[in-house]
Amino acid sequence: MIEPVSASVEPESTFNINRIRRDFPILEREVRGKPLIYFDTAASAQRPLAVIDAVNNFYREHNANVHRGVHTLSQEATDLYEGGRRKLAQFINAPSEREVIFTRGTTESINLVAQSFLRPKLKPGDEILVTHMEHHSNIVPWQILCQQTGALLRVVPINQRGELEMGALQRLLSERVKMLGIVQVSNALGTINPVAEICRMAKHHGVPVLVDGAQAMPHMQVDVQALGCEFFCLSGHKMYGPTGVGALWARESTLDSMPPWQGGGEMIRHVTFEESTWNDLPAKFEAGTPNIAGGVGLGAAVDYLSKLGLPEIAAHENQVLSYATEKLAEIDGLRIIGTARDKASVISFILGDIHPHDLGTIIDHYGVALRTGHHCAMPVMQFFGVPATARVSFGLYNTQQEVDVFVDALLKVREMF
Ligand code: PLP
Fold first, then answer.
1. Greatest Cα pair distance in the chain
2. Does pTM surpass 0.85?
3. To the nearest whole number, what is the mean pLDDT of the chain?
4. Which residue, by CA, sits nearest to atom 12 of ligand 1?
């Protein structure tokens, strides 16, 4: 059995931030003559050497197509790719690795569920529930589905803190609802939703729940069985793994009941011009050559997160988040958008009349990478009556010192306007 280069990591007893930062080569670079301060992890995390090396080593030593070769390289590539799946399955406590479908990421996972699971079941007048804080990827696939079937999209409202209105959710749940799509951690607001409780509520009405776990994976230990959802979606690049790879989890019985989504190689057992039959899980949903190096790298990311420990990562990030929230709240004219009681690693804000894009461009001159815009959550912007926000989002490698540099830079930007 071939093991990726990252598998030899030793358990680490303390969260040593200086040592951890050295795992991320990009943090050594400068931007515009200043040390890089990367506050855009919610858009895409930086990669540790363990992931970079695993991908590099795969291409240098083991590269071949998976599953269908008898030669050594193909078997090694298959071992490594399937090893990534096995690690991910254990990481999210999936009962079986056959239940983990590799996709391009959260977006593709949601589209797969919409078209394969839900489309055949929907009739006009059926309802699909989403919340007001969803990323576009958990809105638009359902909208397309509504156009295709005559189903209706209903929206669970949020309050001024950016929290879900749980009473409204309770009222909206009914036998007419055929799916509830909900984000576990909002990328625009940082809100952590009580997903396990919501799944229990939905179950009373027989409503399946799809959890968008894109932002949850890097910040908290996910246990898909404990959550009680029907579907869980994630993206590799948000959790320190490669881009272009992610996963969908669902129970084997659910996946077995679904028709294939895309046709092609790998997903078939037997093909004639009259008829084709489908491969077993997970291959049934992985048509064509997969992102092999991506799967290997995602396995390495799982190893890396496991080595550091998600409780330790969360504790560190929460410290940085509280510190930054306090510092930003002291700035005159700064309004934080999203003040939920339960938050993770994201602060969206507006500073006076300064357009977030101007702010982002100027702050880049101080070496700070932050995101500005609607964060693929236009309905959230509409709710708060703003066209855009500036957003800082923290990863496991960020520090309070970086927050200090950022706050100083913000104060200078404010003086310019
Ligand atoms: N859901 C949330 C909450 C996100 O933050 C993102 C990406 O920003 C997505 C879904 C979409 O992920 P991807 O672009 O990796 O498919």
1. 72
2. yes
3. 96
4. 106
Q: Is the pLDDT of residue 7 over 50?
A: no
* Band (3; pLDDT cuts 50, 70, 90): low
User: Domains of the chain, with CATH numbers?
Assistant: 17-42+309-416 (3.90.1150.10), 56-306 (3.40.640.10)
Measured between alpha carbons, how far is 89 from 224 in angstroms, rounded to an integer?
10
Task: Give the Cα separation of 102 and 82 in Å (integer).
Answer: 10
Assigned token pair, 337: 């958008």
Catalytic residues: 376
The verdict on the CB of residue 105 being under 6 Å from ligand 1 is yes
Q: Give the distance (Å) from ligand 1 centre to CA of residue 376.
A: 8
Q: Does the C-beta of 106 come closer than 6 Å to ligand 1?
A: yes
Q: Is the pLDDT assigned to residue 407 strictly greater than 70?
A: yes
Report helix angle 310-329 to 400-416, nearest 10: 30
Distance 237 CA to ligand 1 centre (A): 9
Burial 61-80 (b: 16+ CB within 10 A, else e): ebebbbbeeeeeebbbbbbb
Q: Which residues contact 16 (CB under 8 A, 6 or more apart)?
A: none
Please give the Cα distance from 133 to 155 (Å, whole number): 9
Task: Judge if the beta carbon of residue 149 lies within 6 A of ligand 1.
Answer: no
Distance 398 CA to ligand 1 centre (A): 21
- Regarding the beta carbon of 193 and ligand 1, being less than 6 Å apart is answered no
Query: Model confidence over 289-302: pLDDT tens digits?
Result: 999 999 999 999 99
